[in-house]
Amino acid sequence: MSVSWIRNPQVSAMLLLGAAILGLVIANTGLGPGLDAIKHGHLPFTIFGLDLSFAHWITDGLLVVFFFVVAIELRYEFTQGDLNSVSKAAVPTIAAIGGVALPAIIYFNVAGADGAQGWPIPTATDIAFALGVLALFGRRLPSNVRALLLALAVIDDLVGIFFIAVFFTETLSLPHLLLAVVGVGGFWLLGRIYRGKRGSWPLRIALLAVALITWWLVAMSGIHATIAGVLLGLVLSPAPAESAREKLEPFSNGIVLPVFAFTAASVAIPQVPLSELSPVFWAIVIALPVGKLVGVTVAGLIGQAALRVPKLERVRLSELIGIGLLAGIGFTVALLMNELAHRTAEELIVEGTLGVLAGSLISAVLGAVYVALLSRRYPPVDTTEISTRDAEEYLRRTDSER
């Protein structure tokens, strides 16, 4: 049975949204307390020294698959894709910096000292969700709009990964970390051998074993375990990386992300007036749609002007506004950073989660309406041409990675 439909960004976005809504609804019914107890429940035994709640097994374990796939995409974009040169990466990098800096500034000013540790939350852009909305409502928009949104989201994810590794590490075990580095090196070496041996089963098993050991070492080192997925995805050789992505992407889109979205969104809505919600909630709700929109748009314009991008190759102001709106869909990485930032304050996790959901929903709705209206200004797209172009791109990727 084919699962290629799960790779569709529109399907992925719908699965994410549906899972999040389901989790939020169940958490606010009579089943909510039972679901919360399951999330915070632990196994009756430890696994090689790891004693995690079921919710943490999802964020620290299952979500590693998502970050592994993201890292493979990152490597491709920086070596062969839209970011494979300084000139190509410059404009989206500047736009991404604006889309990170302004939301963080807004958050700081609204959240105050009590919630200051959550400033990275509104800096994230959800690749799957943002591209899904664009694919669904902005089909007629020029290809450079999607390319810029993809590049910006990729850089955003890279920044988010950096934030997770640096700012959300409380204790550090150097012996475990050094052994994890050795594990990453071993994974790289096995990947190189895999390329020459055409991927025999013993090598696949060895890659899986080294990956699991490296994940455990990173988890024990004190750094968030998802970083293991990032490091392994970045060092894996192109041929086995593409093979792994092909096999894991449906699992990531169809199971990993929806399960995480369901779990992260399953919070009880506080029975208080909006005016009594904490500044953390309002900081995220404002920073995601407003900060991303203004930051990305202004920085994108400045970047194109400063780098003297030819007028025919520039992304127009109207298109940059659409990209800025869609960039405000934080969701997956924003939810993860919310949990990490507020891990010692359950009430802030709840309000931060609601803020991420509300801010992302506002951005998604405004972005969908805007790009749908903007898309009507462009002529209909020749779907045959798109299919041919996609096929040629796939063949180019495959050939270059052999």
Global geometry? globular
Helix content: over 70%
Our count of helices gives 15
β-sheet strand percentage: under 5%
CATH fold assignment: Na+/H+ antiporter like fold
Can you tell me the CATH architecture? Answer: Up-down Bundle
Give the low-pLDDT segments: 383-402
Work out the number of β strands: 0
Average pLDDT value? Answer: 86
CATH class descriptor name: Mainly Alpha
Can you summarize the main beta sheet? none
**What structural category do the secondary elements indicate?**
mainly alpha
**How do the helices and strands follow one another from N- to C-terminus?**
HHHHHHHHHHHHHHH
Q: Please give the domain count.
A: 1
Per CATH, the superfamily is Na+/H+ antiporter like domain
Radius of gyration: 21 Å
**Separation, N- and C-terminal Cα atoms:** 27 Å
Keywords: Antiport, Cell membrane, Ion transport, Membrane, Sodium, Sodium transport, Transmembrane, Transmembrane helix, Transport
Family: Belongs to the NhaA Na(+)/H(+) (TC 2.A.33) antiporter family.
Pfam families: Na_H_antiport_1
Protein name: Na(+)/H(+) antiporter NhaA
List the helices and strands and how they pair.
Elements (H helix, E strand, L loop, with lengths): L8 H19 L4 H8 L14 H26 L6 H26 L15 H11 L5 H25 L6 H24 L3 H21 L4 H10 L2 H28 L13 H28 L10 H11 L3 H11 L4 H30 L7 H19 L1
Helix pairs in contact: 1-5, 1-10, 3-6, 3-9, 3-10, 4-6, 4-11, 5-6, 5-14, 6-12, 7-8, 7-9, 8-9, 10-13, 11-12, 11-14, 12-14, 13-14
